[in-house]
Design goal:
- This protein is α/β, with parallel strands linked by helices.
- It has a single domain, classed as TIM Barrel.
- The strands form four sheets. Strands 3-14-13-12-11-10-5-4 form an eight-stranded parallel sheet. A two-stranded antiparallel ribbon has the order 1-2. The chain has a two-stranded parallel sheet with strand order 6-9.
- Helix 1 packs parallel to helix 2, helix 3 runs parallel beside helix 6 and helix 7 runs parallel beside helix 8.
């Protein structure tokens, strides 16, 4: 039933043995100063049978924490901590990209030494709170970035890409999804600015495309992926025409020769509906990865039918370190424990059992 998912796939400059990928999952297990730990290395190595592991959202630029205990890739200690992961994954036969990220307006002063978050426009996230050392707090109103500050952010992503290479990753995924900075510029519900980075789609996409160019200059585009979420309303995001945005961006990305485009197909909160994968597939000529809520059978059908080239699984991989083997055997899956998604330590992280054989 799932033979197609176990066909090899060429991702730009990288070949992978199967099409069952692990989506980036924030787990808040980094140590002090956002330094990745040996426990994180164990977690990823356990899941090395994925066609590709995409490591969790990692701060490209210092001072932009949105999750309290998420990792960074801007200091020598962080690079050394991340090398523990890449060494462990490669020793287990795996391949791993690092997702690089700027939290934008999802950051909070209490997580960043009092610094006000930045965004395309001074619009705060509503309807949710952020976890801080002082408990859950409302999101702050961000400061609108000046146009002359944006080259520094692009350069920050470029430096993060260099650091990821030093840390031994096989490539990087640029985080353009889920209401963080690059997505905030992309969607018109968060981007109300005028000038070269606001207004029509091609202007709103400018920062993202500049970041892709900078990262591609470091890695070569065939080692760079991009994740987008045109429909997802997480972090109080919305766009007036998400399908048109997705279709335009898919066509424009053909100029970059990316390793892949990774698309979150729906909305966590069902505030926005639509079908974005079909127009993306029609316009984008490269490797397309689907994500959000796929069963093994649906993933098999999507790949076998040519709708996708691979599927990224999130919580199923979180709770099942040997997910490809379970899918191949038709074995039952461990249920994930949401209570331990973001808690420190090994519980609910590295203690999910492998399949009995």
């Amino acid at each position: 039933m799932t033979n197609t998912l176990f066909r090899p796939l060429k991702l730009g400059a990288l070949s992978v043995p199967n099409r069952i990928f692990m989506a980036p999952l924030t787990r808040c297990r980094a140590g002090a100063a956002h330094v990745p730990t040996a426990l994180m290395a164990e977690y990823y190595a356990q899941r090395a049978s994925a066609g590709l592991l995409i490591a969790e959202a990692t701060m490209a630029v210092e001072g932009n924490s949105a999750f309290w205990m998420e990792p960074g890739i801007y200091s020598p200690a962080q690079i050394a901590g991340r090398k523990l992961t890449t060494d462990a994954v490669h020793a287990a036969g795996g391949r791993i990209f690092l997702q690089i990220w700027h939290g934008g307006r999802a950051c909070h002063p209490l997580l960043n030494n009092g610094a006000q978050p930045v965004a395309p426009s001074p619009i705060a996230i509503t309807g949710d709170e952020v976890l801080t050392p002082e408990g859950k707090q409302p999101y702050a109103i961000p400061r609108e970035l000046r146009d002359d500050e944006l080259p520094g952010i692009v350069a920050g992503f470029g430096k993060a890409a260099e650091n990821a290479k030093v840390a031994g990753f096989d490539g990087v995924e640029v985080h353009g999804a889920n209401g963080y900075l690059l997505d905030e510029f992309l969607r018109d519900g968060a981007n109300k600015r005028t000038g070269p980075y606001g207004g029509p789609i091609e202007n709103r996409a400018r920062l993202l495309l500049e970041v892709l160019a900078a990262v591609g200059n470091v890695w070569g585009s065939g080692r760079v992926g991009l994740r987008i979420s045109p429909l997802n309303s997480y972090n109080s995001m919305i766009d007036s025409d998400p399908v048109a945005l997705a279709a335009w961006l898919a066509g424009r990305l053909n100029d970059f020769g990316l390793a892949y485009l990774h698309v979150m197909r729906s909305d966590f909160f069902q505030q926005q509906t639509g079908e974005v994968l079909t127009p993306v597939r029609a316009h984008y000529k490269g490797v397309l990865i689907g994500n959000m809520g796929y069963t093994a059978d649906e993933a098999e059908q999507a790949v076998a039918g040519g709708k996708l080239d691979a599927v990224a699984f999130g919580t199923p991989f979180l709770a099942n370190p040997d997910l490809p083997a379970r899918i191949k055997a038709g074995a039952p899956l461990n249920p994930p424990d949401p209570a331990t998604f973001y808690t420190p330590g090994a519980e609910g992280y590295t203690d999910y059992p492998a399949m009995s054989v």
